[in-house]
Amino acid sequence: MTTAATNNDLEGARNVSPEERRKAQPFFDRGQQVFDTGNYEYAIAMYIEGLSWDPENMAAHQRLREISLTRKARGGKPIGMFGAKPPPLPKPAKDDFKRQMLNAESTLSYDPGNTDQMLLVIDAAQKGSYFSVVRWLGPEMFRAILGLSLPKQKQHFSQIIKLREVFRNSREFKSASEVCELASRLRPQDLNLIQEARQLATEETIKKGKYDQGGDFTTGLSNPESQQRLINEDKDVRDVGILATMIREAEQAYKTNPTDVALLKKLVTALRKTEQMDNENHAIDLLEAKYEETRQYSFRDEVNNIKLLQLSRHERSEREALAKDPANPELKKQYLQFTREKTEEELRIFSERSGAYPTMMEPKYEMGKRLFALGRFDETIALFQEVRNDPKYRVAASVNLGRSFIEAGFTDEAVETLAAVIADYQIKGDEKSKEMTYWYARSLELQGETEQAKKNYSQVFQWDAKYRDVQARIKHLKGGGGGAPPGPTRPGMNPSGGSNGAK
């Protein structure tokens, strides 16, 4: 598809003169003043007017959205017959994409969760080459759709396809590919969507490798040696000679310009690809030094990513050694001790990450898994209760919350939690539905609801006869088990999402 903008248009924001920025600022200031008095509608109007002068002031766009969310939280109604009646806005000309964008954004501010309005904003932004707006609001719209149930996602299919087109025309190929993958999951019979997702991923690689700079693909091949270097950097290279060359060149480039963060990242990537402890530790030293210099947490976070990989690699080595000699008590003790130390260190890392990014749910979810493994169920319950409010983690966190209730002895709460997540989950027979139904049956069994437990175990058995110990539990409840089945999840085992779920 022919894009609506040229490469030059995509280089950055449109030029806004200092005079235009000066004219915009009083409107933003006034908007903040009236917001502080609770006059949200007037604040919205002021920000829209300011953005008409400075349309790619992303701080103003984001502040406007915060105002709209605050208004909604305090009972503000959408525009409509019985809702809000904002001041009239100028009617845009057919090719006045700035005014189209701002009019749509004004309406969106009265109904901030409306994906139809989000799409109108980013579509006009893309057509008007306001690409920073697309990069800001487009992913937010995508997250809103991801948070919907499966039937509702299917109802939004046309929006998903349009969002993919907007991202593609804005040359945001990675985002376009992710949206296209969602579309292909909703329409698995459409092989064209799968092929398009792959093509968009290829476009992202081309864009990242800068093959398309200069007008066409052949221009990018004018220096084959340089292009091969780019290819080696992008792919999963493991050749020792190539890696040594990449490290040497990256080290020299970084020493020449130690303030260039991109060169540091390039060196760290080359060192990490070796998967050798000395090279990884060198990368850690470089990142720690940059963190001490800048106090930017992203460098410390990269250190933690390396440490997580090292821990996983060490655990795999210990596990393989035990598998070769499973009767060796010393190896078993050593493995269990390391597993606990690994879990404690991972908990420290994710706790630190959560402190740095308090609104992100992923670190909290990972913390919950480690606390569960360590048997600290009271803390686990509180975390999973918080995390399940995020649509991305709603199912996994709810199942883990139910399991935590089981371990902590809150059987009634476990039954209610797991029953609720089963009722909300649309797919039947996949891994998630098997897991939630199995643990629901376990909680019912502990509650003494034998017939209901048997019924749910039977459902899991019909989906997957080899799932965990479901056959033994059915036989036990029917009176043919020959003894009590295993108890609830053993402390120290990983909850759902881990590598070795309890049996």
How would you describe the overall organization of this protein?
This protein starts with 17 loop residues before the first helix and ends in a 26-residue tail after the last helix. It contains 24 helices and no strands. Mean pLDDT is 82; it is low at 1-13, 211-238, 490-494 and 497-503. It has helices at residues 18-36, 40-53, 58-73, 97-109, 115-127, 131-146, 150-155, 157-169, 173-186, 191-209, 217-220, 224-234, 240-256, 261-273, 277-294, 297-324, 329-356, 362-373, 377-387, 394-408, 411-424, 431-447, 450-463, 470-477. It is globular, with a radius of gyration of 27 Å. The chain folds into four domains: 9-146, Alpha Horseshoe (Serine Threonine Protein Phosphatase 5, Tetratricopeptide repeat); 236-288, no CATH class; 296-360; 377-477, Serine Threonine Protein Phosphatase 5, Tetratricopeptide repeat (Alpha Horseshoe).
- Calculate the terminal CA-CA distance, rounded to whole Å: 51 Å
Determine and state the CATH class of the largest domain. Mainly Alpha
- What's the total count of β strands? 0
What count of structural domains? 4
General form: globular
- Main sheet makeup: none
Summarize the amount of helix as a percent range.
over 70%
Strand content: under 5%
The mean pLDDT is 82
List the helices and strands and how they pair.
Layout: H1 18-36, H2 40-53, H3 58-73, H4 97-109, H5 115-127, H6 131-146, H7 150-155, H8 157-169, H9 173-186, H10 191-209, H11 217-220, H12 224-234, H13 240-256, H14 261-273, H15 277-294, H16 297-324, H17 329-356, H18 362-373, H19 377-387, H20 394-408, H21 411-424, H22 431-447, H23 450-463, H24 470-477
Helix pairs in contact: 1-2, 2-3, 2-4, 4-5, 5-6, 5-8, 6-8, 8-9, 9-10, 13-14, 14-15, 15-16, 16-17, 17-18, 18-19, 19-20, 20-21, 20-22, 21-22, 22-23, 23-24
